[in-house]
Amino acid sequence: MYKNFDKIKQSKDIIEYKHSRNDLSVLLSENHNSPLITFMITYHVGSRNEGIGYTGSTHLLEHLMFKGSKKFNKKNKNAIWDVLQNIGALLNATTWFDRTNYFELVPSEHIEKAIEIEADRMRNAFIREEDKKSEMTVVRNEFERGENDPLEALDKNIWATAYQAHPYHHSTIGWRTDIENVSIDRLKNFYDTFYWPNNATVTVIGDFKTDKILSLIDKHFGKINKSPHKIPLMYTQEPIQEGPRRLQVKRSGELPIIGIAHKTPNGLNNDTYGLYILDRILSYGKSSRFYKKFLDTGKAVDVSISYYPLLDNGLFIAYLFAPKNENIKLFEDEILEEYELIKKNGVSQKELDRVKSQIFSQTTYTRDGSYPVASNLNEAIAIGDWTFYTTFLEKINKVKKQDIQKIANKYLFEDNSTTGFFLPKSI
Q: Residue 356, class by beta-carbon neighbours within 10 Å (0-12 exposed, 13-18 middle, 19+ buried)?
């Protein structure tokens, strides 16, 4: 239908195409409500693809890929940031466990410039020693800010304890000594391994015509060859946990924190939708169980659940901030007590209906505009199927209250847990 592109499938108003020569995947959704377009490229590489000695490489490369490319650089007086900001674009990039993405939100008439820049730095980015030195300092400062945040410090240690074999063991930013010492040759090798059209998905949302946008993508990306090698698979799986794990982090801080984590299945598992609902039954809003149990009563300062689907198995983590000088270990039994009530008695239809309404409202709100749509698609791409985005609400609607009880019993048990304590230490 379109030159050099094969239509793969359609779900709702999003259509997937694949370039016939280099296997670049493209997701398109026309929306002419405003004269704006979000152009996003998602690379199927994240911190899960790193190993000992080069953790944090994906994030460090994210920084380096803004330092210039063959066409767009300071020497040519058309640096990436300058060119895009001069046309009124908003731009940035993010790195996560399973993906890295680069994006531009631009006025419709300037979309070709965004496409041209992303195509050029896909294979022609400067990965230089002098840039690595300056950006390593920036990244190390980011690392140190995280180290100084009690919740981030506890979270990092919980993930590192919960995972022994799988690379979710290390955080996206990496370990300090790897950030400081990784060689430019190692970074170049990482770039040359993963940054190819057949390991990327382009998403375009907004005010465009499909034939025109595919023509522009073909013009700039079509001349890039697919990788000369097979993209390496990360095949390591986390072994089944054979008992509870516990840790303590003792650092300067104001409030004690407890985090209780349980392993969850990969994001495309059907239990994901029930876990979304369970998260909100426990922690979302003043009607949630944890709010009534801990905040209404004044027992705790804050309480929340951290849960998001990943390409591989993830974590469902309850975090509670206790009052200053309170014995944080006393709260462990109270959190687990609430889990046991759900495992034994399930949840009410009223709770389920309330949370489903919240999810429908919140999801609709967070999909308003071309960038939010592209951003949500980016996360669906990362967990392995972009139609997770288009079918999410339908799947949520199918969850029954008995499903929540089954899921609680399936995952929230002791041998599947990792419990961490942040204990403030006086200096």
A: middle
Q: Are residues 171 and 252 in the same domain?
A: no
The C-alpha atoms of residue 223 and residue 353 are separated, in whole angstroms, by: 51
Domain range spanning residue 161? 5-221
Q: What is the pLDDT of residues 378-426, one digit of tens each?
A: 999 999 999 999 999 999 999 999 999 999 999 999 999 999 999 998 7
Check which CATH number belongs to the domain holding 261 and give it: 3.30.830.10
CA-to-CA distance for 93 and 43, rounded, in angstroms? Answer: 11
- Tell me the residue type at 109: E
Residue 178 lies in a domain: yes
CA–CA gap between residue 58 and residue 404 (Å, rounded): 36
Pair 255, 161 in one domain: no
pTM (2 d.p.): 0.96
> Do 261 and 179 reside in the same domain of the chain?
no
The CA–CA distances, whole Å, from 11 to 14, 387, 389 equal 6, 7, 9
List of E strands, 23-140: 25-30, 36-43, 90-95, 100-107
Nearest to 207 by CA among 29, 16, 35: 35
In three-state secondary structure terms, 135 is helix
Alpha-helical regions (H) of 195-293: 210-221, 271-283, 289-290
